[in-house]
Amino acid sequence: MKLKTMKVAIAIFVKTPGLSPLKTRLAATIGQQKAEFFYRLSLKSIVSTLREVEISPYWAVGEVNGLYDPLWDDFEKLHTGDGDLGDRQSHVYNKLLKTFEAVILIGADAPQLSKKFIEEAITALRSHDFVIGPATDGGYYLLGGRSKIASQAWSETPWSHENTREILVSKLDSKPHLLAMLTDVDTKSDFKSVLDEMPKPVDGLQNENQQHLINWIKRL
């Protein structure tokens, strides 16, 4: 018997070019113009991936006036609210959880994320309260849940820290399902890992925008 489709939202946390600094650590190694170009290519890869999944996508935009930028016309959009990264994630997660059975949060700097990972996360949320995609830097590239997350879990977790994921997981009410580890792009040296982690054409999971990004990285 086919399982009932789960009503899941996915929020992609983004900043608007020209309104907020983008990929500052990456820009320090390859220049601001190239860092912004990578950011836009990464966004296109993520859009293509999410169009292949039965899920409700939202842009979680960091600036109120950024909500009107045509860059965010592909999906529904909402403002992240103010505060640090924990405050913003909490705001978006709680807002969407009022309407959806489960909510997934991702960033814009893991373009190698494929349909396979998103679908595994959705499937995991049928039997787990939470799912997390660990990043190699100690953070996470994906966090999903179907239950509320206590406000202190967000406020007591240090962000951009080598123990970010470990500390947040320790504050959740139940053990999350773990996805495979991926690399967030913070510096030029991360590109090699991203190329290794990209879905392969033979798997039928690599989209055209991911191929464009692969070619661009190889030309750097």
Question: How would you summarize the topology of this molecule?
Answer:
Layout: E1 8-14, H1 24-30, H2 32-50, E2 56-61, E3 76-79, H3 85-97, E4 102-106, H4 115-124, E5 130-134, E6 140-145, H5 151-155, H6 164-171, E7 177-178, H7 190-197, H8 208-219
Parallel strand pairs: 1-2, 1-4, 2-3, 5-7
Antiparallel strand pairs: 4-6, 5-6
Helix pairs in contact: 1-2, 2-8
Question: Mind explaining what this structure looks like?
Answer:
This protein has 220 residues and is an alpha/beta fold. It has a single domain (8-219), classed as Spore Coat Polysaccharide Biosynthesis Protein SpsA, Chain A, CATH 3.90.550. 37% of the residues lie in helices and 16% in strands. The protein has helices at residues 24-30, 32-50, 85-97, 115-124, 151-155, 164-171, 190-197, 208-219; strands at residues 8-14, 56-61, 76-79, 102-106, 130-134, 140-145, 177-178. Strands 3-2-1-4-6-5-7 form a seven-stranded mixed β-sheet, with helices on both faces. A hairpin with a 5-residue loop joins β5 and β6 (140-145). The radius of gyration is 17 Å and the shape is globular. The mean pLDDT is 94.
Q: Count of helices?
A: 8
CATH architecture: Alpha-Beta Complex
Task: Give the end-to-end Cα distance, rounded to a whole number of Å.
Answer: 50 Å
Low-confidence stretches: none
Estimated structural class: alpha/beta
CATH structural class: Alpha Beta
Main sheet specs: 7 strands, mixed
pLDDT average, as an integer? 94
- Would you count the extended β strands for me? 7
Strand order of the largest sheet: 3-2-1-4-6-5-7
Give the domain tally: 1
CATH homologous superfamily heading: Spore Coat Polysaccharide Biosynthesis Protein SpsA, Chain A
Sketch the topology as an H/E string, one letter per element: EHHEEHEHEEHHEHH
How big is the Rg?
A: 17 Å
What overall form do the CA principal axes indicate?
Answer: globular
Helix content: 25-40%
And the CATH topology? Answer: Spore Coat Polysaccharide Biosynthesis Protein SpsA, Chain A
